[in-house]
Design a protein that fits this description.
- The complex is a heterodimer.
- Chain A is an alpha+beta fold.
- Chain A has 13 helices and 16 strands.
- Chain A has helices at residues 10-18, 78-81, 113-127, 134-142, 159-162, 192-199, 208-223, 234-240, 246-253, 259-263, 309-328, 338-341, 349-356, and strands at residues 3-6, 22-29, 32-37, 48-53, 56-61, 85-92, 95-98, 106-111, 143-148, 174-179, 184-189, 204-205, 270-276, 283-289, 299-300, 303-304.
- By secondary structure, chain B is α/β, with parallel strands linked by helices.
- In chain B, the strands form three sheets. Chain B has a seven-stranded antiparallel β-sheet with strand order 4-3-7-1-2-6-5. Chain B has a six-stranded mixed β-sheet with strand order 10-9-8-11-12-15, sandwiched between helices.
- The chains are: A alpha+beta, B alpha/beta.
- Chain A binds chain B through residues 88-89, 91, 94-96, 98, 125-126, 129-135, 239, 242-243, 268-272, 274, 276, 283, 285, 287, 290, 292, 297-302, 305-308, 310-311, 315, 318-319, 323, 326-327, and chain B through 1-8, 45, 47-51, 72-73, 87, 89, 204, 230-232, 234-235, 237-242, 244-249, 252, 268-271.
- The structure holds flavin-adenine dinucleotide, iron/sulfur cluster (2 copies) and FE2/S2 (inorganic) cluster.
- Residues 254-260, 293, 343-345, 347 of chain A line the site of one iron/sulfur cluster.
Chain lengths: 357, 271
């Protein structure tokens, strides 16, 4: 793998734009880091840090001039791999037309190691399935992924426990480690098209000091990890603990608000809706994100398979950490901590798992 | 093609079979119906309303699907209201199947509760088609009332073909002379050799647990009993997440599941 050093990200962003990509990266909006289109490195959140705790997210001032001094933002790559709403089929004049919403060429800058792992999980669900989704494959191919290795993990992160981070090891086109004194970016190439882009921007070969400095960033991030989970045997002990008293306890705190499933980068559940236009001539069927926390999710024969909040929380947590293995051969959790940060009542999956065990 | 894109099918015939249930036969606008195995289902789409899983109850002489639909909600009601010549969407067939040939050389107990007979019809047809391969064949049908019995003429035909057909009703009318009450009551009475018996069960979950439980009590191996489980299904192809039952995605790993596997899962309330 080629390793180079860039003094600035601007030529890279410029090169991606001229290659036809919309570059999407972290920006500050509504007092949070959100993924949005950027036109230069000046749009990135310089000197911004964050404090994340159960049920709490605050931006703070971070290290001077650093562009990636914060952890996972409420936006993950899911919005780009699985759009929140996509039209599947249009019907008119007695014919079903498959709708191709296209695959926008997007370069995602600032994808964290946990998010790369989450994309790999979604690949198994949508592309590796017995009924593969060609539109998903096209969207994935059109996504150019520029990972950023985390320097400052969030207070709710536990990627080390899940074996997904903090350093990006696979699944990216380029992986960046931001270094200071002097400010520079170590860039690893993970794909042929990544290499072609880097070859066209001013760079120098990485010296061993650069590589060591980057290794140190990832080592320190791992050491400073906010949380941890003991995943040993979890596929077996968690489903077996279906009658643990802890479920009643956590259910008394869970509002079934669906926040955790919306921010989770791997949660893929969806439902399908029909909309007919005012003339009654054209009907569109679209798929949109759904959540196992809603009551009608499990509606069957006039009742609900999971009528209680307890059953819904248990379904979600057990699916994420255990039954996902049965269905997709991998954990459904990548340890990004988003569900902990964005739970309005501060429910912490790592704490719940420790109590259930 | 995208797995969520339905193929256009035409309603070839529509026959009401009881107050809230119709038999539809569906044929593709183009080409032939894909082959199906007993127990598999299709996702049928009513334009502008929605799409639901419906078992394939048989193949028509012209090669179409026979599907029996009970009107319970928006989509099933819309499908029951379709008329001959109407366009519907069909995806599938999907899901696991009942392995009927695996019961060769054995006694067979088929237990159907209510609409469960719609899913089991291809099983019984297969058994009757190769009657000589099997030992005693018992078909036990539980239904609400004599009037709500599905496929009454076929039940007679199957009886003549060597199937011990027994019907029990919850609410008898004054003409009813047969058994009253639960399907399990009949399982207690029928004759089979438990050590070499296969069970095929479909109906409401309580009925299936009772029927499969009774077969096990009489000595049938749980691994030789297969059930068809029902869950909400929005896709049928493993992408919507709605059909989960613990580790299973019932649209892929089911709906037909061995009782050995299902018993533990069904025993957990609200799984
Ligand atoms: C594998 C499989 C095979 C099947 N095979 C058949 C078959 O062969 N024939 C058949 O008829 N059915 C079959 N079913 C069942 C069928 O799929 C359901 O009856 C159907 O999905 C109901 O959809 P619907 O839109 O008509 O009703 P829905 O609107 O989904 O309503 C279903 C029930 O819930 C109630 N309900 C509706 N909305 C609400 C609400 N908001 N809150 C509370 N309750 C509500 C309704 O009154 C109704 O009783 C099968 C199901 C599966 C999984
Ligand atoms: S379950 Fe929580 S920590 Fe795990 S991937 Fe989803 S949002 Fe992140
Ligand atoms: S765990 Fe928290 S975020 Fe998830 S549904 Fe419950 S209250 Fe909402
Ligand atoms: S019905 Fe959608 S995943 Fe099974």
């Amino acid at each position: 793998m080629d390793v180079v050093v860039l003094e600035s990200l601007d030529p890279l962003i410029e090169e991606l734009r001229s290659a036809g990509y919309t570059v999407v990266g972290p920006t500050v909006q509504d007092r949070a880091v959100r993924m949005a289109e950027i036109s230069s490195a000046a749009d990135l959140p310089a000197g911004v840090g964050d404090v994340q705790d159960p049920g709490s997210y605050r931006l703070t001032s971070g290290a001077d001039g650093m562009l990636f001094g914060y952890a996972a933002s409420p936006d993950s790559a899911k919005r780009f791999t699985q759009p929140p709403r996509q039209t599947l089929v249009r019907m008119r004049d007695g014919a079903f037309e498959e709708v191709d919403e296209g695959a926008p060429r997007v370069a995602l800058l600032g994808v964290r190691a946990c998010d790369l792992a989450a994309i790999a999980v979604q690949d198994r669900v949508f592309a590796g399935s017995r009924h593969p989704d060609p539109a998903y494959r096209r969207r994935r191919e059109a996504l150019f992924l520029i990972a950023v290795n985390c320097a400052v993990p969030g207070g709710t992160c536990f990627c080390v426990s899940m074996g997904t981070g903090p350093k990006a090891t696979a699944g990216f086109d380029l992986a960046v480690t931001e270094l200071d004194a002097p400010h520079r970016f170590l860039v690893e190439t993970g794909s042929e098209r990544g290499g072609e882009i880097v070859a066209r921007v001013p760079h120098r070969r990485a010296a061993s000091e650069d590589v060591h400095a980057a290794d140190e960033v990832s080592r320190m991030a791992a050491v400073r990890m906010g949380r941890q989970v003991d995943t040993d045997g979890i596929q077996h002990w968690l489903p077996a603990a279906h009658d643990s008293p802890r479920w009643t306890d956590v259910a008394s705190r869970c509002l079934s608000c669906t926040n955790c499933t919306m921010v989770c980068p791997t949660c893929f559940c969806s439902t399908v809706e029909d909309v007919t236009d005012l003339t009654g001539q054209v009907t569109e069927r679209s798929e949109r994100w759904d959540s196992c926390f809603t009551l009608d999710f499990s509606e069957v024969s006039g009742t609900h398979a999971r009528g209680s909040g307890l059953a819904r929380y248990r379904q979600w947590l057990t699916h994420k950490f255990a039954t996902w293995y049965d269905q997709f051969g991998t954990s459904g959790c990548v340890g990004c901590g988003r569900c902990i940060t964005w739970c309005p009542t501060g429910i912490d999956v790592t704490e719940e798992l420790a109590c259930i065990r | 093609m995208h797995p969520m894109t339905p193929a256009p099918f035409l309603v070839r015939s529509r026959r009401p079979v009881r107050a809230d249930t119709v038999n539809l036969t569906l044929e593709p606008v183009e080409g032939a119906c894909p082959p199906f195995l007993p127990g598999q289902f299709t996702m049928i789409y009513a334009r502008g309303v929605g799409e639901i899983p419906i078992s394939i109850s048989g193949r028509t002489r012209a090669g179409g699907y026979l599907q029996t639909i009970r009107a319970v909600g928006a989509v099933s009601r819309a499908l029951c209201r379709t008329r001959r010549g109407d366009l519907v969407g069909v995806r599938g067939p999907y899901g696991t199947a009942w392995d009927v040939p695996a019961a060769s050389g054995m006694d067979v107990v088929v237990a159907a509760g209510g609409l469960g007979l719609a899913a089991l019809r291809p099983v019984v047809q297969e058994l009757v088609r190769h009657r000589a391969r099997y030992g005693r064949i018992s078909l036990i049908v539980g239904t609400r009332a004599p009037m709500t019995l599905l496929y009454p003429r076929e039940l007679d035909r199957w009886a003549r073909a060597g199937v011990d057909v027994q019907v029990t009703v919850d609410h008898p009318d004054h003409e009813w002379k047969g058994p009253i009450g639960l399907v399990t009551k009949l399982i207690e009475r029928i004759v089979f050799e438990p050590r070499r018996t296969a069970g095929f069960v479909c109906g409401p979950e309580v009925m299936m647990r009772a029927a499969a439980g009774e077969l096990v009590r009489r000595g049938v191996a749980a691994s030789r009993i297969t059930l068809s489980l029902e869950r909400n299904m929005k896709c049928g192809v493993g992408r919507c997440g709605h059909c989960q039952l613990g580790p299973l995605l019932l649209c892929l790993d089911g709906p037909v599941v061995s009782y050995e596997r299902a018993a533990r899962l069904m025993a957990v309330p609200e799984l």
